[in-house]
Amino acid sequence: MLSRQIRMTLKRIAYSVRPSCQLVLIVLGVLTVVWVLILLQRPLEDMASTKNKRIEVPRPKEYATKKAYETDIEIVYKQGFLGYNTSRIPALVYHQGYFLAFCEARKETFRDIGSMDLVVRRGRRLDWKVQWGEVIVVVTKPGYRVMNPCPIVDKDLEAIVLVFIAIPAHLSQWTMVEDGFIQQQVMVTRSFDNGLTWTYPRDITASTLGKMRIPPGIYAPGPGHGIQTSSGKLVIPGNYFVKDKFGSMLKFEENIYDNANYANVIYSSDGGVSWHLGGSIPYGTDASGWTIHSNEAMVVEMQEGVLMLNTRTLHPDLPRVQSWSRNEGHSFSSGKLVPELIEPGYKLVNNETQSSKAAGCQASLIGFPAPHHISKHKTWLAFSNPASMFREHMSVRLSRDGGRTYTNPWTIYDLPAAYSDLTYFETLDRETGLKLQNFAILFEGGMDTPYEKIMFKMFNLDALLSRVPRTIRRHRTAAGSD
Ligand SMILES: *[C@@H]1O[C@H](CO)[C@@H](O)[C@H](O)[C@H]1NC(C)=O
Ligand SMILES: *[C@@H]1O[C@H](CO)[C@@H](O)[C@H](O)[C@H]1NC(C)=O
After folding, report:
1. E strand or H helix at 338
2. pLDDT (tens digit, 9 = 90+) per residue, 230-272?
3. Which residue's CA is the nearest one to ligand 1's atom 12?
4. In what order do the strands lie in the sheet with 453-460?
5. Keyword set for this entry (predicted)?
6. Helix (H, G, I), strand (E, B) or coil at 290
């Protein structure tokens, strides 16, 4: 019917022009009709051939695209600040127009030992500028080092929930791992005024580490931020060392006092009041026989109830590990190596390359809404770490397929660099009324060592999309890694 009408119309037009053009117009008209019919036919064919796939309903355009924009790198902490020796272990969240930049304020040395406080600086965002406030001491505990700040913004309570650990100042982590019993506290504090004041910390060791079948020698949250899931649950990623039957089977350099190392989660369903033990990545080996050790971890929610852990491995030659949970973190699938996510494992000693004792490095991962109007994946990921053999080259990558593949790295800082944390924030585009998607990163770096400063940088999604190299390398283990 439709095609006949169109043909009639075309004929009428054709009769009104010179006879020599008539044939050309008729042929063009018929071709146009055929082309329109093919287009109309296509969705039906798609439905027939992909019966088992979910049909995505186009979503209204929510996000505007803009020109790529990134700020210069600025220093938030540096060695010697307020009489502290070194700032280390950054963690970053964004809430109600403020960035909260946490770190450990180490008093005696840059190393992982001696007295430490936890501190925060609040940065008020004024468009693409940040007004940083004074350093606020969040936790100090005489005789202890308070470590691994792991903050979460609880959107229901409008509160910042901070989980951390307290360890006797001069008890080394290697002694703890060798001893193999609990000699630390897991603690939580909350802020109801966006980081200005903090509640007296509460000890949550008994309901978390205390519930493990074999007591861990050491447990450490994060480092970096935790998440609130779509159901409102607070989830803290972390890792622990335990002397179990697998630990004693490890050979030579992989054996750390007969301990196995597991990334895990702890969670709270009541805004950070009570805490419980979640699942951990099971012990296992990958297809080529490498033992999977999962160390410092980050967690993202891929879709409702589906979490993914992305972790450091202590082996110098192994890349990062990922694992999925389909039950909101109660259990995790076996870990898979992610070949493109390389991490440092070496250091230069007297100009010679040597493998580090505890290799790998922390990384940050954050999930954010995919800007696609039609997208198979609801969540895209931004990932940051020193993508090198050494602790240097702070880099950011993007994953558009749920962590199966990552783009090549965009290096944002070329010099020595180590730990980092990413946060995501949305702003409003005044012209279109649509939302804009932006990121900030807080990371350790310096000229000669990575621990001289903690620095900050903002960029929009358009910058990330245009700065990451186009090529995507596929996982060796991509098949079925969900
Ligand atoms: C920090 O401690 C180290 C010793 O670990 C010392 O060499 C260095 O001078 C100290 N730096 C500052 C800024 O206090
Ligand atoms: C370190 O090694 C590099 C390359 O092998 C060489 O160019 C450099 O001179 C060496 N530096 C020192 C201090 O030995």
Report:
1. strand 336-338
2. 999 999 999 999 999 999 988 877 889 999 999 999 999 999 9
3. 85
4. 74-78, 453-460, 435-445, 410-428, 392-399, 379-386, 364-369
5. Membrane, Transmembrane, Transmembrane helix
6. coil
d(CA 475, CA 65): 29
CB of 316 within 8 A of CB of 346? yes
Triad 141, 147, 148: Cα angle to 5°: 145
Report the amino acid identity of residue 75: I
DSSP state for residue 254 in the 8-state scheme = G
Q: Is 110 in the pocket of ligand 1 (CB under 6 A)?
A: yes
Single-letter code of the amino acid located at 437: Q
**CA-atom Rg of the chain in angstroms:** 26
Q: How far apart are CA 348 and CA 434, in angstroms?
A: 49
Q: Whole-angstrom Cα distance, residue 458 to residue 114?
A: 33
First to last CA, the chain: 48
Q: Which of 87, 106, 110 to mutate to test the pocket of ligand 1 (most atoms within 8 A of CB)?
A: 110
Beta-strand (E) ranges in 390-478?
A: 392-399, 406-407, 410-428, 435-445, 453-460, 472-473
pLDDT digits (tens, 9 = 90+) for 97-142: 999 999 999 999 999 999 999 999 999 999 999 999 999 999 999 9
pLDDT single digits (tens) 322-355: 999 999 999 999 999 999 999 999 998 888 999 9
Cα–Cα distance for residue pair 96/279, rounded to 1 Å: 32
Residue 301 and residue 380 in contact, taking contact as beta carbons nearer than 8 Å: no
Task: Retrieve residue 252's tokens.
Answer: 């030579």
- The CA 119 to ligand 1 mean position distance, Å, reads 19
Do 175 and 193 touch, CB atoms closer than 8 A? no
CB atoms within 10 A of CB 419: 29
